[in-house]
Amino acid sequence: MNSEYFRTTSILIILLAGIFANPVYADCYDKRAPGMDWSGCKKTNKMLDDANFTGSNFDAADLHSSKFDNSNFTSASLVKTDISRASFIRSNFAQANLTKAIGYRANFKLAIFSNTRMSKSEFSRAGFGSAKISDVDWSRAELSRADFHNAQLKDVNFEYSNLSRARFNGARLTNVNFANAYTFLTRFENVDLRMVSELSQAQLEIACGDEKTQLPQSLQRPADWSCEELD
């Protein structure tokens, strides 16, 4: 009897060990819901507006050209996710991780980014018009021709990022770090730069501004600062 008991117990232990040893894979057919796992999944050209993706995993997924307007991505992970040409109008990315994400021409109009990680990401030509962006690490990122017009940026780190031809027209910048950022033809028309940090005279000389651009006392207005002929 004891022998049979130990033999049965041993078999159960082996079976359970096999179950827990198998890795858990994403289920790309899971319905959208908080905490789901779509990592590595292909969800292109989908209509996924008004969804709650809180705490969900999209790492390395392909979300190209899909619509996620009015969706909640709080605490979601989108590391190395392709969101190029996707739409996230009025969506919330608080505490989300978009490190190394690719968002070429993505639309984030009126979106919220708070305590968000976006370093080493690529958002060339992406739109952030009227977005609220605070406590964001956006260092070493590709942001050429990104549009931040009328956006509110506070405690944002652009250190070593490419901001060439990016537009900040009418944006509110508070404690924004431009250390070693590339500002070739960056548009600062009608922008108050008095509350930014690490912005150098050399960076201003290759950027663009107008008579409404306000500068820190330590910096001088460039003699020729217009980009109109380059539009």
Tell me what you see in this structure.
This protein is low in regular secondary structure and about 230 residues long. It has 2 helices and 4 strands, in the order αββββα. Strands 1-2-3-4 form a 4-stranded parallel β-sheet, with no helix packed on it. The termini are far apart.
Summarize the structure.
The chain is built from 2 helices and 4 strands.
Write the layout of secondary structure elements.
Elements: H1 2-21, E1 112-114, E2 132-137, E3 152-157, E4 172-174, H2 201-205
Parallel strand pairs: 1-2, 2-3, 3-4
Spell out the key features of this protein.
elongated, 231 residues, little secondary structure, single chain, four-stranded parallel β-sheet, 2 helices
Largest sheet: 4 strands, parallel
The rounded distance between the terminal residues' Cα atoms is: 88 Å
- Uncertain parts: 11-24
The pLDDT mean sits at 90
Shape: elongated
Sketch the topology as an H/E string, one letter per element.
HEEEEH
